[in-house]
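Q: Study each token:
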Amino acid sequence: MIKCVIIDDETNCREDLRSLIEYKFKDRLRITGLAGSVKEGVGVINATLPDVVFLDIRMPEDDGFQLFKKFEHINFDVVFTTSFEEYAIQAIKHAAFDYLLKPVDPKDLEAFLDRFDQRAKKLSVANKIKLLLAQLASGDEPNILVSLPVGKEYKVINARDIHYCKADVNYTEIHTIGNVKFVVTKTLGKVEEILTYPFFFRCHKSYLVNLNHIDSYNKIDGWIRMKNKEMIYLADRRIEEFINLFGKEK
């Protein structure tokens, strides 16, 4: 179920969208809050942690774009709602996930939800690039602790210290800094679900690599060299997406 918040200064627009969601999309969307301004919306977002915010652009106090300035990190998708065609273009330029013209057409909302479901399964290349570059530019190295099952215990490790993960039938080898290796009692697919951070990339059915520990790659021969000198397979079907993470080649 997708949690959402509606921010719109016009009561009738808020209620129309709420009614549409509750009538036709209650099995896919759950409204966790309504707000009539950006200021009020910030409080609702912080309190309910939505997946999606339906955000009106033109409001009397702050326009919708001011919402971005209220959060250090945006952990939700934004769908701009507007009655004005010209604002739809501006919304896209401000990295909106999508936009809906008011009054919202049920078919347009359904189309957005279908796209959202697909993107939710896997981060888009564009989002990976944005998140990765933001991470590298920040200079911050916060700990991202994860717990992984090792035998009867759980090993706690900083995800940033993982060089790569390798499938071993129903187990997974975790290779970390200092050439330390341990085996967890989960398949690589399950480990990938745990390590959802944008700096991990599934380069092959048997390998999940940490992009921060890559030294070089060869797209012709299909391999990645890690900083610890390990060579990792790069599947043909993943080459284009992998290269796009570092920008298009000249």
